[in-house]
UniProtKB/TrEMBL annotation:
Residues 38-268 form the AB hydrolase-1 domain. GO terms for molecular function: catalytic activity. PANTHER family: AB HYDROLASE-1 DOMAIN-CONTAINING PROTEIN, HYDROLASE, ALPHA/BETA FOLD FAMILY PROTEIN. This is Pimeloyl-ACP methyl ester carboxylesterase. It comes from the Bacteria.
């Protein structure tokens, strides 16, 4: 980027880019001022590039180089979705190193937080600062129930002609319903060059990978020595809120934010509070 080129700080306007690494073409978007350590965003189950809340991304991109990418086999990235979270982490490592970075900060949500944990365990020293939201540790109690919960809520959404995320991410009280609809509306702010939605088979493979992760032997999280911010709602039905506290207990020196009367998407419902806190943490 030339010094006189305008810095894009709106996720809705970030250009689509591709990068080839190890036989895979990765689709990604980047925004914010270049230079220094980038903040790499690790996405949730079934997410494409269009699933990041601009009210979270844009404040971070105001002063930081932000990179979001499609996992292998999802959206604009080529290949086949890997059957395990460990392999997804190795795919992410290929992408990051192909970009030329040996140090990154991570912002992760849900499945993205699981991938980030496996990435750090396999490649200690890569991540400088870590944000884990709506996620839990490998082998976390009741995490393997995500498959049943997800299919149930997808059915409920289909019957009401709603987006499944309104059920999966938000409580079904008045405040939750309002927050869910506002969140879905924000995801449509990008009007052009939108990503391809995830295919059903890819979605099912990711879901089984999370279930396998939930039934696995816990990882040694002593490798997670970097400053870590953990956040969730107090009523997460996808990745039980208790697992956020579990992570907090196991990651020395971590910070924990639990938002009241909210679910898996608590950080999106409370974005006016959470976004500035994430900006401050990542800028520390």
């Amino acid at each position: 980027m030339n010094s006189d080129e305008e810095v894009i700080t709106s996720y809705a306007k970030a250009p689509n880019r591709t990068l080839s690494a190890g036989g895979t073409t990765f689709a990604y978007r980047e925004l914010g001022p270049r230079g220094g350590v980038p903040v790499v965003f690790f996405a949730h189950l079934a997410a494409t590039l269009d699933n990041w809340d601009p009210r979270i991304v844009d404040p971070i991109a105001k002063n930081r180089h932000v990179i979001a990418f499609d996992n292998v086999g999802v959206g604009g990235s080529s290949g086949t979705v890997p059957p395990t979270i460990e392999q997804a982490a190795e795919d992410a490592y290929r992408f990051i190193t192909a970009l030329g970075f040996d140090t990154i900060d991570v912002f992760s949500f849900s499945m993205g937080g699981m991938i980030a944990q496996d990435l750090i365990v396999a490649h200690p020293g890569l991540v400088r600062r870590l944000v884990l939201t709506g996620t839990g540790p490998r082998g976390g109690k009741d995490m393997d129930k995500v498959l049943r919960t997800t299919y149930y809520d997808v059915l409920r959404a289909t019957l009401t002609r709603s987006d499944p995320k309104e059920f999966l991410f938000f409580n079904r009280d008045t405040a939750g319903k309002r927050a869910g609809k506002a969140f879905i509306e924000r995801l449509t702010e990008r009007a052009t060059d939108r990503d391809a939605p995830i295919r059903l088979k890819a979605f099912q493979t990711q879901l089984r990978a999370i279930q396998r992760y939930g039934r696995s032997t816990p990882s040694d999280l002593s490798e997670l020595t970097m400053p870590t911010l953990i956040a969730n709602g107090d009523n997460d039905r996808m990745v039980p809120s208790a697992l956020s506290n579990d992570l907090h207990q196991r990651i020395t020196g971590s910070e924990l934010i639990i938002y009241p009367d909210s679910g898996h998407g608590g950080i999106f419902q409370y974005h006016p509070d959470f976004a500035p806190r994430a900006v401050e943490f990542l800028g520390g």
